[in-house]
What we know:
- By secondary structure, the protein is α/β, with parallel strands linked by helices.
- It has 3 domains: 1-58, Fumarate Reductase Iron-sulfur Protein, Chain B, domain 2; 64-163 and 296-361, 3-Layer(bba) Sandwich (FAD/NAD(P)-binding domain); 167-293, FAD/NAD(P)-binding domain, CATH 3.50.50.
- Helix content is 33%, strand content 20%.
- The strands form 4 sheets. A 5-stranded parallel sheet has the order 3-2-1-4-15. A 5-stranded parallel sheet has the order 6-13-7-8-9.
- β11 and β12 (274-285) form a beta hairpin.
- α5 packs parallel to α14 (342-361).
- The structure holds flavin-adenine dinucleotide.
- The site of flavin-adenine dinucleotide (FAD) has 40 residues, from α5, α6, α9, α10 and α12.
Amino acid sequence: MDAAEMLFENNPLSVICSLVCDHEKQCEGHCIRGIKGSPISIGAIENYISDSCFDRIALKREPKNGMKVGVIGSGPAGITIAILLASRGYMVTVFEVKDKIGGIMRYGIPEFRLPKSILDRYYKRMRELGILFRPNFAIGGSLSIQDLFKDGYKSVFIGTGAWRPRHLNIPGESFGNVHYAINYLNNPDVYELGNDVAIIGAGNSAMDVARTAIRHGSRNVTIYVRRDSCSASADELQYAQLDGVRFEYNKAPTRITDDGLYICDTHQDENGHTVLDEATAKFVPASTIIISVSQVPQDRLVNRDKELQLNEKGTLKVDQNGETTMPGVFASGDVVTGAATVVAAVAYSKKIADDMDRYMQSLPKDGQ
Ligand SMILES: Cc1cc2nc3c(=O)[nH]c(=O)nc-3n(C[C@H](O)[C@H](O)[C@H](O)COP(=O)(O)OP(=O)(O)OC[C@H]3O[C@@H](n4cnc5c(N)ncnc54)[C@H](O)[C@@H]3O)c2cc1C
């Protein structure tokens, strides 16, 4: 139990990170045992400890301090902030546009990699910490951040992630046989992909799309990669290959039609940029095309609260304390960094929880 409590204190999403992190690039990649042989299986050990004790860990909670905090979004960033601030005595309310908590961990990462029941266990433990939830409710619609301050919230956290798919900017992208990865993974059951699925993109999301399509019955699933290697982790690439996904390297789409797409060869110029050899474009039949070339933040909150500013990449502008351009409003996770990882969102949010705590403790006490 002590080990589980240490892991939870260091990373409240330890159970999840033990399953979805790229351990080879992170903990296991830094293990010195790996220099001459195999690294310690840190992911598997962490999973055993954290998973078997998660429901029994004694949650510490300081007495209520009467200060309300609004958390917008319940992905890894929002969950981390909510748990840390609730254990320090703040009264936390989480606003979530979806019906359940988890963000991309629930509505992006497939069940075969991360069982959703883990997120239900988080919900239960967070309720034990006194955290309140408003599911199916988007801030930026009927209520704005300003409305939360009017109601006495002392600080607001934005952890709304990056959910607007990047597009390819080629003809045909609006056709009915084309979908974006983040939309497909949200609820794969409602899509009829057919047998021949072409996927554009080579990151972990593309691997998730391909493996999900195969599990939903598509027989010929091909990933088209612009360069000669994938950006997905070595493990995810290997699992996709084992599942029977085909890979075509140095290829890019130029145009989508109702029955497939035109694919051309690519090469890298002297600066390492990918160049399309459009004259080589050939038609490839496909029943469905899924575009998986990352996401950027949506702008619902920024459109509603004009004080919030974005930087040139389209992510929220924050200072070194994670405070946005709107006083008392903090942010972290993908909405600030752009599409990243679960552990990056947790690590960043741990720091922001300290910054928010410091900020709220420095406010004049009510009635003074
Ligand atoms: C398909 C896919 C697979 C991935 N696989 C991995 C992996 O294996 N390992 C890994 O480490 N990372 C993975 N990632 C990346 C990782 O999931 C993200 O970096 C991480 O979830 C970001 O956390 P977040 O809390 O910033 O945002 P999110 O997880 O995106 O959560 C944001 C939440 O805010 C809610 N929201 C948005 N706007 C509003 C609003 N106005 N009001 C209320 N709620 C709102 C959203 O519904 C969502 O629940 C993957 C990403 C994708 C797309």
